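ok trying this again, last paste got cut off
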Amino acid sequence: MEFDFFSNFSTEQKKRYNSMLVTNFILLMCDVWPFLERDELERDRLSFSWIHSIKPTLEMFGLDRNSYPQGSLSANRFHYEFLRTYLGKRFYEDDDIFNIREGLKNFITLRQDDSGVKKSFLFGSYFEITKRSGSLDQHYIRDIHVSLRHSAAALWIMFEESDKEFSSPLKESLNAFLDNVESYLNMDEWQNEKFRHLTLSSIISSCMSVLRKCIDKNLKKRVASIFDLCKKTLFSVSFLTQNLDGSYKWIILENEKNNFSQYEYYFNLFVITQVPELIEMSETQSIIRRMIQNKVECEIGKGIPVKDKMCVIDEKEILPDFGITSSVLYLLYYSLTNNIGGEEWLKYCKSNFNWLLDFCLNAFDKRKFYIIPHSESNARVLLLPHKGLSDLRYKEIKRYISEIKKAIYFEMKDKKGKLPTLLKKIQLPDDIKHGRELILNWKISEYCEERHWSFIEKISRSIDFGTVGEFWGGFIIGALRAGSG
């Protein structure tokens, strides 16, 4: 039974709650962009990815801002789920969302390493076009940069978009992926990986999707075995460490170039929100409790910061973060709605739910509480329930999104630092006008590279989305759109 926290809302609280969700939906839609990619056959393909907010986030974590030339596949998996949860049936009916789904799938399939001398069938992070090594002819191939975590995220989207009868190419990719997972676990390849607990949670999430949707019994049996092994490994002593107070934390590998441990909570929430069923484990509950116990006070209430208070000299210097706090709020909601974690855990969730919710309602429209700018973190609030939008309201919101994206486009094109002025010219209603300030956290003028992007206000249904169809057994676009879900 869904946990009811609406009943005691005042009129003002209802208004702010809806505004909180709409605000982050707008940010999510303004972060996704279409772009053209040229493959090894010199064909231009239209793809979509979430790009703006990840650039400053990468640098915050001590990573190269060009780590994901066209965005993060791992984040795309989350964004897909946020949109699907928030929009409900509109996710399958709205033309603009349909185009994003098709462009996202093209972005994924274009990464499959099927142009080399030896096919791997794996999905990678991104590719570069190179000449075939040792070849006398001038054939070009895609040099795929493969990440097991990104392969898992890509497959999850493919599974969610597919019918119960997986196509042959999709089965090939799944089996190749499972082979690599077995190698990854059996040969201890994970020992030196920075994001190993993120990788395992992504694998677990993809396995769960297969077990839920696929009707192939032999395939499901193999997936179930790997699922159990991954879950066991994720909670092993090689992945988890216990603090002096008895709480648990996932081990994060660092080097002189990154500062991942400072953003431990962000990575914890990546793992748990991707597979909230893990809350049944006492170790997961301990990790969430530790974040809640690290709460700090500010002028609008108590919230959870990005960093552990032990990392700073003066606690007054640390602010709560909207994305971290709303993500924890969602996990408590999930526990209470699904009655997961045991009686004592559920009692703990209820005792902490309201103050977390109060902070989110008071912080969502204030730029200083968006410490991590990445929309993948902040948009987790869209996983919370809502009553839906009227057709008129939805149409208005889409118009506002279009106007904001035009302003972003002109800034990307001219790079004159005029985005604040351009955004102020847009007439927005009071309940979402703060979104203009929040977008400035993305530092678009600083990070954008014009050559990667093209702004397309209205995409025609006649646009060729490439080879996506083969992964669904040749379904035509219209049938695929109507049959997804």
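PB: full thing came through this time. The beta strands are 32-38, 44-50, 126-131, 140-145, 240-242, 248-250, 296-298, 301-303.
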